[in-house]
Amino acid sequence: MAACVRYIVDDVKAAIEFYTRALGFKLEMHPAPPFAEISRGDLHIYLTQPSQFGGGAPMPSGEAQKSGGWNRIHLVVDDLDAMVTTLKAAGNQFRNDIVQGVGGKQILLQDPAGNLVLFEPNRAEYRAPGSGSRTGRR
Q1: Fewer Cβ atoms within 10 Å of its own Cβ: the N or the C terminal residue of the chain?
Q2: Is 86 helix (H, G, I), strand (E, B) or coil?
Q3: Which of 86, 82, 60, 76 is CA-nearest to residue 118?
Q4: What are the pLDDT digits (tens) for 65-81?
Q5: Alpha-carbon distances of 138 from 68, 80, 135, rounded to whole Å
Q6: In Å, how far are 64, 65, 76, 136 from 60, measured between CA atoms?
Q7: Are 42 and 28 in contact (CB under 8 A)?
Q8: What domains does the chain contain, in order, with CATH numbers?
Q9: The model's pTM
Q10: What's the CA gap between 25 and 5, in Å, rounded?
Q11: Which pLDDT score, from 0 to 100, does residue 69 have?
Q12: Which residues of 79-95 are buried (b: 16+ CB within 10 A; e: fewer)?
């Protein structure tokens, strides 16, 4: 089963460009300017601009949806240092520097709307979410 995430973004076209070019996502559909679906493996992201209808509509209280929170997706990479060097050279923005935690190294990369993409390479001691067993990755 695919995992689906909705990210509220300021500009769907800019988000498509970022995710497909910088991170290797595939464009699944872009049926209207304020909505697109992209994928990478079993992860599907619904990119939605705030609007008056659908997934970007205001809440019943009138509160408008906005981008750039602290929720994030985890994209696992084999060489975080090399990926960060490449992304920085391409002008991408980060909220922090690489940090080492109990599960591996990580960094917070911002998409064009300020949403976060977290990279965390696995180590042998790390258990992949839902796996119940140790992984064979670094």
Answers
A1: N
A2: helix
A3: 76
A4: 888 887 888 888 889 99
A5: 30, 11, 8
A6: 10, 11, 37, 47
A7: no
A8: 3-51+67-119 (3.10.180.10)
A9: 0.79
A10: 14
A11: 81
A12: ebeebbeebeeeebeee
